[in-house]
């Protein structure tokens, strides 16, 4: 990519992050393009649409939660590792306006970002299931939908999100609660 094209792309991502933090994941793409000083066609040419742009905006958050999942694989208690990761997911989603919605959108279209989150969480879930702490029928996709629902319902209220997640964990691992 040419240097000027890369600068445009970087500026569009930075502006999109700003607008999404103000307006949420459904922020106007035209507004993002206008503030970035590019045409709407340029924005679409670089990203193809809302989901790919949101994935770029939240790339570092997704990278961070995937790295946390890898680190937690060394945690001696598999259920605690899974719980810690789910709490990290809720914290990220409630503190980054638009992230929970972006993850739902990326899941609906089967994006690479969604696949990375699923893969990271699946390893932790399988460890907890192998240890007998979580029933075999629990799926990582279900847990992530719970996390997204909790994040969306709690908005930026992290205390409420934590209480709701605790209730959900009690439901999936009642013997350990």
List segments where confidence is low: pLDDT < 50 over at least 5 consecutive residues. Answer: none
- Give the overall average pLDDT: 87
Q: In DSSP terms, counting alpha (H) and pi (I) runs of 4 or more, how many helices?
A: 10
Number of DSSP-assigned strands: 0
Rg calculated over all Cα atoms: 18 Å
Q: Into which percentage range does the β-strand content fall?
A: under 5%
Oligomer kind: single chain
Structural class: mainly alpha
Largest sheet: none
What is the rounded distance between the termini?
52 Å
Order of helices and strands: HHHHHHHHHH
Judging from the principal axes of the Cα atoms, what is the shape? elongated
Which range best describes the helical content: under 10%, 10-25%, 25-40%, 40-55%, 55-70% or over 70%?
A: over 70%
Written overview of the protein:
- The protein is an all-alpha fold.
- It is built from ten helices and no strands.
- α1 (3-23) packs across α2 (29-36), α6 (78-95) packs antiparallel against α10 and α9 (140-154) runs antiparallel to α10 (158-172).
- The mean pLDDT is 87.
Give the SSE map.
Layout: H1 3-23, H2 29-36, H3 40-47, H4 50-57, H5 59-72, H6 78-95, H7 99-108, H8 112-130, H9 140-154, H10 158-172
Which labels suit this protein?
single chain; 177 residues; mainly alpha; 10 helices; 0% strand; elongated
């Amino acid at each position: 990519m040419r240097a000027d094209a890369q600068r445009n792309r970087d500026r569009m991502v930075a502006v999109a992050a700003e607008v999404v933090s103000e307006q949420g994941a459904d922020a106007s793409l035209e507004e993002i393009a206008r503030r970035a000083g590019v045409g709407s066609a340029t924005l679409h040419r670089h990203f193809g649409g809302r989901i790919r742009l949101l994935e770029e905006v939240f790339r570092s958050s997704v990278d961070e939660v995937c790295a946390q999942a890898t680190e937690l694989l060394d945690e001696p208690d598999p259920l605690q590792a899974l719980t810690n990761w789910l709490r990290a997911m809720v914290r990220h989603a409630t503190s980054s306006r638009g992230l929970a919605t972006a993850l739902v959108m990326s899941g609906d279209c089967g994006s690479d970002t969604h696949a990375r989150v699923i893969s990271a969480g699946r390893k932790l879930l399988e460890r907890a299931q192998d240890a007998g702490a979580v029933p075999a029928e629990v799926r990582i996709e279900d847990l992530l939908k719970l996390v997204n629902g909790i994040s969306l319902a709690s908005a930026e209220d992290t205390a409420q999100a934590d209480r709701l997640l605790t209730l959900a964990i009690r439901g999936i691992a009642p013997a350990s609660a």
